[in-house]
Amino acid sequence: MAARYLEILRTRHAARLLAGTLVGRLPNAVAAIAVLLFVRTEGGSYSLAGALAAVYGVSNAVGQPVLGRLVDLLGQPRVQLPAALVSALGMAVFAFTGIGALALAYVLMVVAGFFTPPLEGGLRALWPTVLRKEDQVHTAYAMDAVAQEVMFTVGPLLVTLCVSLWSAQAALLVLNVIGVLGALSVVVSRPSRAWRSAPREAHWLGALRSAGLLVLLGAFLFVGIALGSINVAAMSYADDNGGDVTYGWLMAAIGLGALVGGTVYGARQWSGAPERRLRVLVTLLAVFYVPLTLTPGVVAMAMLIALSGVFLAPCIACSFVLVDRHAPRGTVTEAFSWLVTTFTVGMSVGTGLAGPVVEWGGAVSGFALPGVAGAVALLVLLATGRVLAATGSGAVVEAASENDRNGAPEPRFSTGHQA
User: Fold this and answer.
1) CATH number, domain 202-419
2) Torsion of CA 246, 23, 267, 277, to 10 degrees
3) Which residues make Cβ contacts (< 8 Å) with residue 248, sequence separation at least 6?
4) Domain locations in the chain?
5) What is the CATH number of domain 14-197?
6) In what way does this protein cross or attach to the membrane (predicted)?
7) For residue 125, which of 273, 339, 303 has the smallest C-alpha distance?
8) Helix and strand tally (H, E) in the chain?
9) Which long-range contacts (CB under 8 A, 24 or more apart) does 245-251 make?
């Protein structure tokens, strides 16, 4: 199983790009927790802390596709590093000014969120130029999804460690400095400096003019809703079954399930059309959400939640392949950024929906939402199967002639299609 992953990590630049991207995305992964802890230590209310974190999240969702389009137009170093610096500066000013001036605090959250660099989309655009075979890129997508689960598990622990060793203010500063260093590691690498998006057709919709991409975004909006609703339903369940400790174990369980599922999925080469494979994976995802409504004891519940997470990372990895196929020529970074944005918005919607549902019908009703949302995601894929299966003419992600002068590796297969 490990051989396919080791083969990729031994490829020149691959380990550095993966590690740099994960480290660079650390501030985004822990922003909500870090902001909540900081606002509370400043004497702010839970409502204020939640509102500031929400503003950061919404601004991030808006900024990702905008910055992704700029990356496609201008290249990675000209966008990724300046954006990382501006985002970190916004968070640093917030750490020093606190919540004394609320208007300024909200503005700083907008700045920090909006300018979060689209490193996630950037990495997926780089894989085809670094790896030799298409199946290696598919494995890299799975490895990417697995690595994210690790980051979202380790990230909160790093926040609490910084807070316990120093302070919540120091946590904001340290984590954002680390994030800038991660972004710097990526953009000074040869693949990032040499990468150029394929020539693009000027169109105000950019990547969104692809019908296939819109289908994927529609489906993954509901996958995000499912995941967001689980977070709230699990909290309601934990309130009656051990409190915060139980909630922590349940959240770790879904991360563990996704980690195992993504690892197994990426360790083998899959045949057949990825469109059909995605429908199967989303079906399994929806089916394994249903037993959560049983709400058994804590140990059994943790096992059920872990099983519900097994197909999450494979779904995400498979979607990366399809985004790559359906992104119009010259918009691959923007297209991946739209997927990130849609999934984030879906999680926020799921959290908002689950709140009143849980208040009305308890944890059982809350855990019914993921199954419903998963079923809707599947219906979207089934109803639009022909659209998703229709790919246009191949568009190789070509580096400009400058790439050859810089010695950049040549892409060896098609990585995008004109929609």
Assistant:
1) 1.20.1250.20
2) 80
3) none
4) 14-197, 202-419
5) 1.20.1250.20
6) Multi-pass membrane protein
7) 339
8) 18, 0
9) 246/298, 249/298, 249/302, 250/301, 250/302, 250/305
Q: Please name which of 158, 153, 159 lies closest in space to residue 309, comparing C-alpha atoms.
A: 153
Q: Is residue 314 a contact partner of residue 392, using CB atoms and an 8 Å limit? A: no
Structure token pair of residue 252 = 């770790």
How sure is the predictor about 406, in pLDDT bands with cuts at 50, 70 and 90?
A: very low
Give residue 400's pLDDT band: very low, low, confident or very high (50, 70, 90). very low
Closest CA to 330 of 233, 238, 417: 417
Closest by CA to 301, choosing from 375, 361, 236, is 236
- What contacts 293, CB < 8 A, 6 or more positions away? 364, 367, 368, 371
Instruction: Give the Cα separation of 107 and 111 in Å (integer).
Output: 6
Q: What are 87-136's pLDDT values in tens digits? A: 999 999 999 999 989 999 999 999 999 999 999 888 988 988 898 787 78
Q: Count other C-beta atoms under 10 Å from residue 297's C-beta.
A: 9
Q: Residues for the chain: how many in total?
A: 419
Give buried/exposed letters for 306-323 (b at 16+ CB in 10 A, else e): bbbbbbbbbbbbbbbbbb
Contact 204, 355 (CB under 8 A): no
153: amino acid identity, one letter: T
Question: Under DSSP, is residue 394 helix (H, G, I), strand (E, B) or coil?
Answer: strand
Token readout for 192 is 């990032």
User: pLDDT, tens digit, for every residue of 20-58?
Assistant: 999 998 888 888 778 878 888 888 886 787 788 878 888
What does the block give as tokens for 361? Answer: 């019908």
CA distance linking residue 280 with residue 282, whole number of Å: 6
Pair of tokens at residue 393: 């003419």
Burial 135-172 (b: 16+ CB within 10 A, else e): ebbbbbbbbbbbbbbebbbebbebbeebbeeeebbebb
| Beta-sheet strands, E only, within 223-366 | none
User: Cα separation of 195 and 325, whole Å?
Assistant: 18
Q: Which DSSP symbol is given to 281?
A: H
Residue 75 belongs to what H/E stretch? Answer: none
pTM of the model: 0.74
pLDDT tens digits, 372-393? 999 999 999 999 888 888 754 3
Contact 249, 302 (CB under 8 A): yes
Tokens of 323: 């985004």
- Residues β-bridged to residue 394: 417
**CA 319/CA 277 separation, integer angstroms:** 10
Residue 29, pLDDT score: 80
